[in-house]
Structure formats: structure tokens, C-alpha cells
Amino acid sequence: MSQVEIKIPAVGESITEAVVEEWLKNSGDYVEKEEILVTLETDKASVEITAENSGVLETKAEEGDTLEIGSVIGTIDTSKQKPAGSGSNTAAEQNSQPSNPTAATTQSHTSSASGKAGPAARQILSDKGISESEVKGTGPKGNITKQDALNAKAESQTTTTQQTKPVAAPVASPKFIAPNFDSRESRREKMSTLRKRVAERLVSAQQTAAILTTFNEVDMTELMSLRSDYKESFEEKFGVRLGFMGFFVKAVCEALKEFPALNASIDGEEVVYNDFVNMGIAVGGSKGLVVPVVKDADLKAIHHLEADIKTYAKKAQSNKISIDDLTGGTFTISNGGVYGSLMSTPILNPPQSGILGMHSIQKRPHVVDGEIKIRPMMYLALSYDHRIVDGKGSVSFLVKVKERLEDPRRLILGV
Question: Is 386 labeled as catalytic in the residue annotation?
Fold first, then answer.
């Protein structure tokens, strides 16, 4: 018998453990080489493990288990051949399938009632307000997979239209996102690995860096006009929408060239200066805030920046962000304005020494050439590490960003 071990891989220098989030294959299934077997959750991102060889899978870890890097979570018996005329299931499983279609349907729904949802599936169902008992599980032992949870609403609608009797509305899960104040009770939920790590990093940043925040405001009139004039032709030529973030990244990159301390970090008793800009863009993912990094942002045109940002946003929403996507940042931009924030004091993303906070655009009275006019204004907030960045440098940096955004032609011409 030839057994190939499935181990939790080393996915980053600072990552020491991972949670078995969801098995996508049953123990006893025949799996093909490079098929996705299991999803792991680390403190930075989710990681998919694929089969290195074809054979029969045996799982040795349960969903929800927290294990160290290098731990064996399963094996693949490569000596066993794929059963003739079968898919991924074993011959024994196929023989157990009922020949009566109605019986098969009944068995499927019965198994789903006893199945459990993994962490990812449970969160999706929670966001939808759907009980686990209302979802048919297709995973191991009838467990509810992430895909089952994503399809849950569509399945419920289909079932309703097919049955002659009305179907009751889905019962809210105990983990329903809205609080039930009628219960007058408290409930406890285990923090995800990602959320725990974010909490640790935020507390660490507050304790180890001398964080100070300075503010300014930007008149967005010219930038909004430029975007309005060219957004259709821009999208037609480059295949990506023209947003504001590309301009902000470009403006920050230009300002960082004049104030390199904001693009640096402290390592022991040394300051590490970077002659490049890897721009972190904070985006909301399916499991919380993540900061994917646009590598060499200072060398990229606006349409390349917009394309990269769009790609990362999609990956974050579908939980496909990789460890490499999140590493190497030298400066960060966070846009709280998309959620309606008027002003905030962003926290540094260690070991970086600067983070720029964008906010909502609101029409406000603004003095222009001695006259009061109504202008679309945005507050900017720069949080910085006062250990290596002084007040003059931080304020001057923010003014440079403001000037470039208020005259976007300078960004296009590079002056």
C-alpha cells in the first residue's frame, strides 16, 4: 500500500497554525491529482490544498480542528484504482445509492438535516439569515459546504415553486446577523483565526508605534470632472472602470518619493528605506478586512492600478486572497468613505510607518478665490509613526497629495 500524506503546508514565515475549515471531498472518495481537497484558514487568508497524487482519500482531521504547520490531516492511497464508471465516489458509495429517484431525494434531504456547516458555510448562512436545517448538505456525512450555503437561497426558491403546498419561510439561524432583543440573552461565538490575528496586530500597532494623525481636505471638483469626461472611453479602451482609487494611489506614490520616511519601516535600531512602493489597499472581504498589496505601484499606469485593485476586490469577496497577495506592503490606503465614514483615524499596518484614510465625498461650502461656493469635498487622514516621521514631513506629505488630486493633470503629465 502506498500512502501519500497530506500535510498543512508552510504558507508564511509568521504563520504557525491553521484551522481545517472545510473538506471538499469525503473520506473514502477517489480523488484525482490536483483536485481541491480541503480549505484551511490561517490568520491571514484561506488556503486550498490540492491532491498531489490520484488515489483514495482518508481524512485524519475534522473540520474546525486547529493544527500546527506540518501536521498530517489526511492520506491518499495511490495503490487503489479509480472504480470503473465512477466519478469521485467509491464503488461502495455507488452501490449504496437507491435506484428509486424519489427514495434518493428523500435520503438526500434526510442527510442534510443532520449535516453540519463548516465555519465558512456557517458565516454565509448567518449573513443570509438561513438556518442550517433548511439547507441540503452535499459534503462528507451530509455536511453543508460553502457552495451549498452560497446556493441556499436559490434552492429554497426552486423548491417553493415546485411544491403544491406553500413552504414556510426559512427559520433564522441562532447565529443570525441581527440581534434578537426579545430574547434578553447573550450569546458567545468563537472568533475566527483571521479576526484574532487582526485584533492582535491592531493592539500591537497601538503599543509599539507612536501613532499620530493629521488631517486635510481635498476639493474633488477637477478629479470628478475628469472622471466624468473620460470614464466611458477609459472603460472601452482598457476594459476596467475608472474610479478614484487609481488617482489616489498615483498621488500617494508621487508624494512618497519626496517623503521617503513614510515609505519606510523600523527594524530594531535601523530604519529600512524602500526605493519602490508596494501599495496596500484595504478592502472588505467575506471574512473581514484584508489588505492586498499592489506590487510596484509607483511604476504602473492608472489603468493597470485600477485593474489590479478590481482583481483583488473580487478575490477578497470570493475568499481567494493568497498569502503572497497580502505580503510586502510599504504603505497603505484605506477607503472608509465607501461605507459612509466622514472622518476617521486609521491605525498603522505594521511594520509600515504610514496609512492614508479616504472618506466620503460631501458637498460643503468652500472658499474659492474669495467666494463661497458649494464643492464636493473629502477629508483625508494620515496616520504615521512619529518615531521616524516628524510633524512637518507628515503635513507636507498630505499637502502634496492634496495638490495632486486637486489638479489631476499633474498626475497624468508627471509634473
Answer: yes
